[in-house]
Amino acid sequence: MDHKSKLINKYKKKINLVKKHNKLYFTKDNPEITDAQYDELKKEIFDLEKKNNFLKDLNLSQIVGSPPSNKFEKIKHLKPMLSLSNAFDKNDMKDFLSKINNFLNNKNAELEFFAEPKIDGISATLVYEKGKLIRGLSRGDGTTGEDILANLKTINKIPKKLEGNNIPHLLEIRAEIYIGKKDFNNIKSDFANPRNAAGGSLRQKNSNETSKIPLAYFAYGFGAVDPMIFKTQSEFLEKINKWGFSINPLSKKVKSINEIEIQHSLVDSIRSSLDYDIDGLVYKVNDLRLQSRLGNTSNSPRWAIAYKFSAEKAVTKIKDIVIQVGRTGAITPVAKVEPITVGGVVVSNATLHNEDEIKRKDIRVGDTVQIQRAGDVIPQVVSVDTSRRFKTSKKYIFPKHCLCGSITQKEINKSTKKEDAVRRCVKGYDCDFTAREKLKHIVSKDSFNIDGLGKKVIDQFWELKLIKIPSDIFTINYNKIMKLEGWGELSINNLKQAIDKSKNIELDRFIFSIGIRHIGQENAKILASFFRSIEKFINLFNELKRKIILKNLIELDGIGETQIDSINIFFSNNTNVEIVKRLIEKLKIKDFIIKNKKGKFSNKIVMFTGGFEKMSRSEAKSLVENSGGKISGTVSKKLDILVIGNSKPTKRKIENAKKLNIKIIKEIEWYKILNI
């Protein structure tokens, strides 16, 4: 092959790569490479054309277009966009209602809820100042979104200027962007499904391209509002509708669980006739004052829930059963099935959950099975059609060894004394499969949040032995990466910047990132508020100091025996300790700063005993924490205040507090402090 032919071949390969990634990005809304890598690929094509004019004559680069602009600017939301908890049946909803009533200490009054269809679209935020649209953001990670204002402005019915009375000076509107089914039918040859079409359109770098897509929206909520003029969710929607916003006509006030079920069934029955996809209803406490009292957990509001419709089902055949190893060593069986469309998504894998689930349903390779997307998200096997099973079929024998060769085990639950359903590899970082998944967890958005270092890149770098343990991320050989296909100078610089930026990390994110079993984001924040600094946290490395620390941790509300045992097991492993040590050496870990330091309970440790008349213990604890204080579960010298409820306080706690000269206040004094 002569030089010219080689150039043409190289050029065509790069063009085909762009086509592939265009499809993944714009059609499937599921990119495999970063924006920076895509930009670099296109730059390489243009550079080849510049140096070799004959390549332009092939008329292939028209699919590339002009060089794209820089990535969308990232901007912080005025208030975080939290995710919703899910309910899948009537019992889940009863549990939701019960938790709300318990939190509010609401024994008699029937609460009013507002039900709204959950649109299967793309969330966005619209910010108005003095009635003028000044900012439009994608949801992003909930805290920070991308500036997509230009694209949002192409949606005709989104008001650019609000008209009407009593419009707040600052108004942050939450909206769900979607494409109607009828409109999607006209463009479906270019897109996988309506949601992906909406997502891909909003992430177009050229708003002229977005304007060609018939996007629509429904406004459903708010973030920051100043001044606050709304008293209920229903009033909020009524008013913004008058100001020009589109709201869903199927929204309705409901009260009892029976009314909730009736509304749920009604909307589910007409679901297929709607011009937009919905996967459930969102139920919100209608009274905004009560919403404020209920507040949020670290991930979701206590006052709202998404009640999902029954999952769509389909019948297919199991081709194989394979094993996957998670970051905690959990061994998860996965069914490889003949590809089938369920709820508009092509499914080729379905989770089998665990060994016990396979035994209970007697799932075998070759079986004809019914699968569903649980919550329209995770495909799972519902049932087996044994009448279509071959006589030569054999029971599936669950492997007792991990993919790494190590023996697996089932743990005994201390409280129930029962064997855990999940089989686990216990080698931790010494298991390559677990270690790789731990790396994916560390670079994820809730941990170090390293742009450009996603799951597929981790897999690639792992296979090439560029990264094996977390600290390797910060000493990576960029010269070796430069030689890989798809990695140019620009994409490498962007990766380097993202990694350098991630070296400055908050203590709670660091604790969550290292992957201690049973330590989620909320637990990590509790631990960070206890240790305050990395210098105190590393005392866990020492066995003697760790024993003392673990005794003190039991006092923390939200940290139980399960978490304490996990912490002890994790730091008793020398490999874990060494890996965490090496990681810390590469980082600047910020001290944990408790918010609302100037609150009524700033730097105070508070404990409650007995029941309260006007509020639940949960709400009382939440008030303390939101005002800068900490909650204790035991009486000790560190305790500042013991609050005694009128109903059945523990005498022993009161006596111990008196002995230690701890300030004791009664329920009536507590309400005075809170101005209730």
Summarize the structure.
The protein is α+β, with helices and mostly antiparallel strands and 676 residues long.
Structural commentary:
With 676 residues, the protein is α+β, with helices and mostly antiparallel strands. It folds into six domains: 61 residues, Orthogonal Bundle (Helix Hairpins); 223 residues, DNA ligase/mRNA capping enzyme (D-amino Acid Aminotransferase, Chain A, domain 1, 2-Layer Sandwich); 116 residues, Nucleic acid-binding proteins (OB fold (Dihydrolipoamide Acetyltransferase, E2P), Beta Barrel); 75 residues, 5' to 3' exonuclease, C-terminal subdomain (DNA polymerase, domain 1, Orthogonal Bundle); 85 residues, 5' to 3' exonuclease, C-terminal subdomain (DNA polymerase, domain 1), CATH 1.10.150.20; 69 residues, 3-Layer(aba) Sandwich (Rossmann fold), CATH 3.40.50.10190. It contains 24 helices and 24 strands. α2 runs antiparallel to α15. The N and C termini lie far apart (86 Å). About 2% of the residues have low confidence.
